[in-house]
Structures are given as C-alpha cells and as structure tokens.
Known about the structure:
The chain is an alpha/beta fold and about 550 residues long. It is built from 15 helices and 22 strands. Strands 1, 2, 3, 4, 5, 6, 17 and 18 form an eight-stranded mixed sheet that branches. Strands 7-16-8-9-12 form a five-stranded parallel sheet, with helices on one face. Strands 13-14-15 form a three-stranded antiparallel sheet, with no helix packed on it. NADP nicotinamide-adenine-dinucleotide phosphate (NAP) binds near residues 54, 55 and 380.
Amino acid sequence: MPPTEDFDVVVVGAGVGGVYAVHKFSQEGLKVVAFEKADQIGGVWNYNRYPGARVDVDSLEYTYVFSPELYREWRWSERYASQKELLEYLNHVVDRFDLRGLIRTGTAVIGADWRPEAQRYAVTAGDGSTVTARFLVMATGNLSEPRDAAIPGLADFKGEVVRSSRWPADGVELTGRRVGIIGTGSSCVQAVPVIAEQAEHLHVFQRTAHYSIPARNGPLDQGLYETFCADPSQLRALWKGSKLYGAEGSGSPLGAPKLAAAYSPTEQQERLETQWALGGQKLHVVFADQATDKAANDLVAEFVRNKIRQTVKDPVLAEKLCPKYPIGTRRLILDTGYYEAWNRENMSLVDILEDPIDRVTERGIKTRDQHYDLDLIVLALGFKAFVGEIDQANIRNEKGLSPTSAWTRGPRTLLGLMTAGFPNFFTLTGPGSPSVLANLFPQNEYHVDWVADCIKYLDDNGYSSIEPEGEAQDRWTNRVSEVALRLLRLQGNDYMVHRNADGTRVFIPWAGGVDAYAKTADEVAATGYPGFKLRRGADDGSKTPGARAAAPA
Ligand code: NAP
C-alpha cells in the first residue's frame, strides 16, 4: 500500500458537484482529491442509464456557468439533454479542465474519522488506501443510494432483476421479453414508453399514480441560447433571485403568476393551457397560491387529470392513472409519451393497492389474486434520500458518532452545508438547503464557491476548523420547517418529507425560495460566519474574533 497522503480537501463523489469541486478547489491552490465509487465519473448521470433517462430541467439552464467559454462552446442538442449527452458533457468538462488526475474512480470512501489532535479526517478508501484531509466535502447528491427492495422472494427469481438507478452500462435485452416494472416515479415514467416499444409485454406495478406533464422535448431554443451566451452569469443571477425553488426554468409569456382567484375562469383556463403548452416544470407556476391553497391547487390538478382522461382511451384505466393527491406536492414528472403508451396492446397496469404484491417467485410476480410470468423485473423504487451516501461513507466524529445519528426526527444542519459536531465536514446541496427542489448545477456551483470562500477565510485568519453551533443549527432547522408549514406538499408522501412515528412531519429541503436562502448564506460568509464555531487547533475553544453579526435565524 502507498503511504498515507495528506490533502487539503477530500471530495466524495465525482458527479455534478464533485467535478466542479475539484476544479474550484485546485484553482484555489488547495491540494484536492475526489473519490468516486463508480468506475467512471458522472454520478447520477452515470448510474441512471435506464432507457429514456433525461433531465427534467432545460439544458440551457441545467449546466455549469462558472466558465463562460465552456458555456458558449458546448452545444446541447435538445431542450432536455439525455443521460448520454449529460455524461458526455461532464466528461468533456473533466478533460477540458484537466481534472481526471484529481479523481480516483472505482474507489469508494468507506471510512472517515475526525482526528481532533491533527484537525484532519483520516479517510479510508475501498481499495485499502488511506489519506488525510483538512476538509471533507460530500458531493454525493441526495438521490444516489437505491432504496432497498423489501419484496419477498426477489432472490428466487430465475429471470433478470435490474434497478433503474444501476442500469448496466452495456444495456439490458428488452426485445421480446415479458417485463415487470415496480415503482411509478420519474424513472419509471421515463422508461415505460421506451421499454414498451421493445418488450413483448410490460406490466407496470403501480402503488400510487403520479402527475406527469409532457416534457415537450425538442430542439434547443436558439434565441435563448444566444441570450445566455452573451452573458452566462445571468443564469446564476436568475437562479439566485428565484423566489420559488429555482428549477422551474426562466420565463413564461404570462409573467409572474397571481392568486388563482385574481383570474376569471376563462383566464384561469388560458393560463393553464399556456403553461401546459410550454411543458415541463412550468405547471408549478400557474397560480401564486397553488402550492398553499387547496382550491387553487384543485384547478391545476383537475386540468391535468382531464388531459390524462383525454389521452388514455380506456376510461377505467385512465381513472387509475389519475393521481388523487394535490398536484406539485411531489416534484412533477416530465415525460415523452407516457400516457400515450397506455393505449398500446402490450401494456397493462397492476394496481398493487387493490391487488398487493405477495412475493416474487421463480417465474415472476405473484400478487394476492394473480401470477404474472416475467423474464425481467425492473425496480424503479427511488432512493435512500439524503442519508444513504453519507451513511455509506461511514463518517465518524471524535465521539464515534455519524452525521446522521442525530437526524432521527429529520436532518439537522446549518444552511444544509454543515452539521453540528462534525468539524470541516460539508454537504453540497444537503438537507436544509434548496437541494432537490432546485436546479442542481447552479446550486452545486454556489455551494462549492461558498465552501471555497469559507476555507479561504479560515486559512487567512489562522483557523483550523469550523462547525455549526448547536443553537444556530437548531434555529436554522426550525426555520426550514417553518417555511414549509403552509405548503400542501408537507402532507405529501415522498422522500422530501420526514415522517415521525408520532405523526409529525418535517419538510427536508429549504422551501423558502432560493433568493432568501442565498441571501442568508451570503450574509453568513460576509460577516465572519456567525452561528459557526471556529477553532485554532484541538484545544482552542475560541470563536471568531471581533464583532460578530447575528447567526442565521
Ligand atoms: P421516486 O420518485 O421516489 O419513486 C419511487 C416509486 O417507487 C414510487 O412510485 C413509489 O411508490 C414506488 N415504491 C417504492 N417502494 C415501493 C414498494 N416497496 N412497493 C411498490 N412500490 C414502491 O423515485 P424515482 O422515480 O427514481 O425518482 C426520484 C427522484 O429522482 C425524482 O423525484 C426526481 O427528482 C429525480 N429524477 C429525475 C429525473 C429527471 O431529471 N428527469 C429522472 C428520474 C428521477 P409510492 O409513490 O407509492 O411511494
């Protein structure tokens, strides 16, 4: 084994966040290495190779803007880039900025222990190598580690089982096979039309019907491309100024929405049709109160249900595909031909609320009432959101605790970036930041820059470590909960809501707008990191010097 090497920063993960992190930190003169457990870079865009996988945010905005030259020279071929093109783009960035030598692929971090005496993390990789680092930056995303399939009998199946989020790089034979897919989130909805075209038969095992909106993928908007090329930094400004989550994309010919009641019924329908025609996440912003007022929400929800009824010819099937919950309380799914695919002869729906899955057998899936013979089972069950990859990295502080050990009633962070008790440990796009609600390219850039500024501040001022003060973290965690209280989506059942055994619910991402979030995080950085403990070595309990601004409230 090579001797332990000392770094300034270890980055875990080489996806959207990790690639920019190694670039930025090395530009800052820091000695940095990234560990990527997959055998190549790309993160979710490497792992999620299922048929039909593509992004659901406009490519002109789902991209790096840190380099105007990079922005101008890369030509996306479609409005919503495919997984393949996104992976090509990330590889292009790695090569263009000569980052490959800073990334160790095929090497998982399997342990990271904070050593207070050295003010460093001792990091162990899966290949047995060890390094130390002053700072540990998790760039592992929030939807990386697949959710366990607690479906009895899966190991007995004699056919093939694949997960949508671990789709083999050399593909899966679909032609002429009887396929069953379990899970009806974004991954399933994107995959279904493509699988159905090739499979002999496709059975979709649905627990919950979700809203899907036509993506309206097509050629790139050249006019918008030219506008953004003229000054790519405006994209970051657009994102930072977003009062909503920052993933809805820029612009609507209708302007900012007003309350639903401010429009006449005719105007309401016009707005709905216009946003529907634009496609994508624009249906999140028809009425200003659709996320908080049930009546306003019902207008949007029923509009979409009617579109489903108009598309799916079998009225009984159409009703089963109509979601029953308020729209937008889960991230809207974007599809290309999902509901149209349901008119095919070779597709059938298994409503597993009516007829629950009993077990997987050697030959297929046995529900309570029926057996489905299958050659291939696709699991599109989602992820161990927010905590999966942090737990996998096996991080321990000096008390032997893991960052998530205090998260039993929901994640607790300061700004989604740091966790009390874990010095110099950063989570890019972590829980308590806009995270999964927002466009993850600008958000990762913003967070990486924030961390780089923070490290510079520590170094310039002779500090060796930073971590949140418990009270400041409590206040931020409470604020994250409070801004979500009025949202209908707090009552939703997806991975963004932490549900406690006593019935209480905690909304995990920051839902108070990117603008408010960035303003707070900028102020914290500009005023000497109020709310954080800064130390000059293991025995130094001191804080930042001089006058300190108020911690984030
Ligand atoms: P997901 O949205 O969490 O959906 C998981 C699905 O699996 C749900 O339908 C869920 O049912 C079902 N499920 C889970 N456990 C089950 C069980 N034991 N039995 C039966 N059904 C079960 O996961 P995803 O589709 O992978 O998407 C996750 C997130 O990734 C999305 O919200 C999106 O943000 C992102 N994503 C984005 C894109 C894109 O950019 N285009 C594509 C894919 C994913 P219930 O709904 O009843 O819980």
